[in-house]
Write a structure and sequence with these properties.
single chain, alpha+beta, globular
Length: 71
């Protein structure tokens, strides 16, 4: 099961992508709320979005790169 983002990425023939997803409630499943995929980028810019929020210690880039290495 690829899920929404995996299916969208594979449908475009891509191995990875950056997806801009707009939802009124990020804690709810996309199956339960109205949402929009604003765009899908075939070359996501991880360096631009390395930190999701400077007030938090969540390093997004490291997590994404670890997932890519294990794929």
């Amino acid at each position: 099961n690829l899920g929404l983002f995996g299916a969208a990425t594979r449908e475009l023939g891509l191995r990875q992508s950056g997806i801009d997803f707009i939802t009124p409630d990020i804690s709810a499943s996309y199956r339960q709320v109205r949402f929009v995929i604003n765009e899908i980028n075939r070359a996501p810019m991880l360096d631009l979005h390395y930190f999701a929020d400077f007030a938090l210690s969540n390093v997004v880039g490291e997590t994404v790169l670890a997932k890519l290495k294990s794929a």
